[in-house]
Specification:
Elements (H helix, E strand, L loop, with lengths): L1 H8 L5 H4 L15 H8 L5
InterPro entries: XkdX
Protein name: XkdX family protein
Pfam family, one: Phage_XkdX
Length: about 45
Amino acid sequence: MEFWKYAFDMNWINAEILRKAVQTTSNPSGEITPEQYREITSINYV
């Protein structure tokens, strides 16, 4: 998660791109959880 937070804070990625790294049933190989997505972006993952 640290890499994704750093990339987001440095504006290398935005919240839309970060959504692709979230673990879901359709993306089981995602690298962060929906809760971590919220911690990083302050946006609920829906």
